[in-house]
Design a protein that fits this description.
- The protein has 3 domains: about 10-95, Rossmann fold, CATH 3.40.50.20; about 125-185, 2-Layer Sandwich (Dna Ligase, domain 1), CATH 3.30.1490.20; about 190-360, ATP-grasp fold, B domain (D-amino Acid Aminotransferase, Chain A, domain 1), CATH 3.30.470.
- The chain is built from 11 helices and 17 strands.
- It has helices at about 20-30, 60-70, 85-90, 100-105, 110-115, 130-140, 170-175, 230-245, 285, 290-300, 325-330; strands at about 10-15, 35-40, 50-55, 75, 125-130, 145-150, 160, 180-185, 190-200, 205, 210-215, 220-225, 250-260, 265-275, 315-320, 335-340, 350-360.
- Strands 9, 10, 11, 12, 13, 14, 15, 16 and 17 form a 9-stranded antiparallel β-sheet that branches. A 4-stranded parallel β-sheet has the order 3-2-1-4, sandwiched between helices. A 4-stranded antiparallel β-sheet has the order 5-8-6-7, with helices on both faces.
- The radius of gyration is 20 Å and the shape is globular.
- The mean pLDDT is about 95.
Length: about 350
């Protein structure tokens, strides 16, 4: 169907997924007079702030049809929405970002080929379908190298570092025999990301490049702006805009990159694309004129994009597991902007909230 629908205040959007990203999208939408209907197989933080919730499986076509009848546009808060779900809905109303963008970013091999076809550098990689194929790939790329499942990986899940002396068969079995890629290591100086939005008319607006530090494969700290030359930051934004344009993307997109600094100077290598709002963009709620969540709502509704100007130098720290137990001390800290996601159980590795601090430039 022609994707030219523009919503008006008072309309409703559907959100596939009930996690904290959906929660923050719904909160931003409400401020703009847009109602949200959350659709997910289980209740989650987004359900607490949605106008309506549908709890049903992603394969339940009757429930999906009910969602389509309630809203003007559907979006999603995580990239592992089944392809059939997106296609079923797209036959009835706009799905933004579209199913083709979802399909490209759900499979690491497809995503990397897409990027390389655009002339955008990635880590060297080979597809691996069995233990013998892993042996051959290691002979080509060397060790250490990272074995990743092609689908359903996030926060370090679905991947393993293969070092010298590790048993190949055991490494393959550790990921359950799923189709994988083997990636060669990139000698990066820091991990960075570009969070930007592409509108229905093709306009693109990006926030300043974020610098990201991970602990146990989970984002721990984002600082903005990232430490890099202005020219390199401009290249990062241009890469993200090119990716979004090639995907005919509508909404917020996040591109994770490696920033490499060596004797040849600075360069960028794209790691992954996230077709959604992103953890490294959480700082924008307090630290920018327009949050990434409002920007996403604006884009999927067909509205003009907002200003991405920062209010200062920004740090955003995730509250992971029991770190959220310090909520009282954080609330007492002058200038700390505390966000708690309303999750009832603090498990190890679970994102429970975040705190943003803004400093003068």
């Amino acid at each position: 169907m022609a994707d030219s629908v523009i919503l008006s205040p008072g309309a409703a959007i559907g959100i596939l997924g009930s996690g904290q990203l959906g929660r923050m999208i719904a909160m931003a939408a409400a401020r703009l007079g847009i109602r949200c209907v959350v659709y997910a197989p289980e209740s989650g933080p987004a359900c607490d702030v949605a106008a309506e919730t549908i709890i049903a499986g992603y394969e339940d076509e009757a429930a999906l049809a009910r969602l389509a009848a309630l809203v003007g546009v559907v979006t999603y808060e995580f990239e592992n929405v089944p392809a059939h779900t997106a296609e079923f809905l797209a036959a009835r109303l706009p799905v933004r970002p579209g199913p083709s963008a979802l399909a490209t970013t759900q499979d690491r091999a497809v995503e990397k080929r897409f990027l390389n076809d655009l002339g955008i550098p990635t880590a060297p990689f080979l597809e691996v379908d069995d233990a013998a194929g892993l042996e051959r790939a290691l002979a080509t790329l060397g060790r250490p190298a990272i074995l990743k499942t092609r689908r359903f990986g996030y926060d370090g899940k679905g991947q393993i570092m293969i070092r010298e002396g590790m048993d190949v068969a055991e490494s393959w079995a550790a990921l359950g025999g799923a189709p994988c890629i083997l990636e060669g290591l990139v000698p990066f100086t820091r991990e960075v990301s570009v969070v930007g939005a592409r509108s229905l008319d093709g306009s693109f607006a990006a926030f300043d490049v974020c610098e990201n530090a991970h602990e146990n494969h989970i984002l721990a700290l984002t600082t903005v702006p990232a430490r890099m030359a202005a020219e390199t930051a401009g290249e990062a934004v241009a890469m993200a805009a090119r990716i979004a344009g090639a995907l005919e993307y509508v909404g917020v997109i996040s591109v994770e990159m490696f920033h490499v600094v060596d004797s040849a100077g600075e360069r960028l290598v794209v790691n992954e694309i996230a077709p959604r709002v992103h953890n490294s963009g959480h700082w924008t709620t307090d630290g920018a004129v327009t949050s990434q969540f409002e920007q996403h709502v604006r884009a999927v509704c067909g509205w003009p994009l907002g200003s991405t100007r920062r209010h200062g130098r920004v740090e955003m720290r995730n509250l992971i597991g029991r770190q959220a137990d310090d909520w009282a001390a954080l609330l007492a800290e002058p200038g700390a902007c505390v966000h708690l996601y309303g999750k009832h159980e603090a498990r190890a590795g679970r994102k429970m909230g975040h705190v943003t601090r803004i400093f003068p430039e």
